[in-house]
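Is magnesium ion placement plausible here? Inputs below.
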Amino acid sequence: MGLILAVVNQKGGVGKTTTSVNLAAFLAIRGKRVILLDLDPQANASSGLGIDKKKEDNKNTYSLLIDKTSLKDCLQPTSVRNLQVCAGTIDLAGAEIELAPLDQREHCLKNALKGFTDPYDYLIIDCPPSLGLLTLNALSAAQALLIPIQAEYYALEGVTQLMETYHTVKQTINPELEIFGVVLTMFDGRTQLANQVEQDVRSYFGEKTFKTVIPRNVRLSEAPSYGQPISVYDRRSKGAEAYLKLSREVLKRTKQWKEQLS
Ligand SMILES: Nc1ncnc2c1ncn2[C@@H]1O[C@H](COP(=O)(O)OP(=O)(O)OP(=O)(O)O)[C@@H](O)[C@H]1O
Ligand SMILES: [Mg+2]
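Reply from A.M.:
I modeled the complex. Tokens:
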């Protein structure tokens, strides 16, 4: 069975989608079978991979959660071999409300994934910037969290709330949930603030913090408008180098993770 990772931080704009897309792309390039599931009504991960939102007939994460369409029927290929997407859609904004009255409302995603038997190595869930029902569904379905933290003021304040939710989820809907790793994003090493935040994050999360730090890099912010991951848009950029390095760390950690489980 593959590893299900939820990329989560309820703070907006911290690099969840950029990390989901580019990590997924580099893992796929390295031969892993990767599925990126876009759980955000903004659907940035989908458009960032060149998925055309206007193609109404394509099934998406809404179909998966609400219409009970099988994951297999919701997947679309991308320009990257080995990388498939379950696209996001603005309809997911309504899904929060539609899920609310349901029995097992936190487990809809988990249940939807149960019937999926195709082999894969990673299923990466790009979460919306909230701790609402959609994110809870990701926390229930995932084995582990990947938390991007932007090196800026108040970074750790939001993280405290996220950790409270994590502990509640562990005590209730998903006792198995672990923290896979924490990655610093949009890092500008020239500022004292960024370095201070890095120190704080490393002392709070210890070994869980990835060695790789993602720098602020304009190429990373340009790539989505071309519908391309950084591996395609500008493989030589600092941003690409950083996500390639992160993918290596993720592979290594996955191996350790599996050894621990077995
Ligand atoms: N390392 C980086 N360097 C420069 N720009 C970046 C970097 N990472 C992300 N960005 C830009 O910052 C903005 C926010 O990033 P992103 O969309 O990945 O965050 P998010 O956490 O997914 O946001 P949301 O909470 O809205 O889903 C985007 O415009 C993105 O292109
Ligand atoms: Mg996002």
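Short version: Residues 96 and 133 are 6 Å apart (CA to CA).
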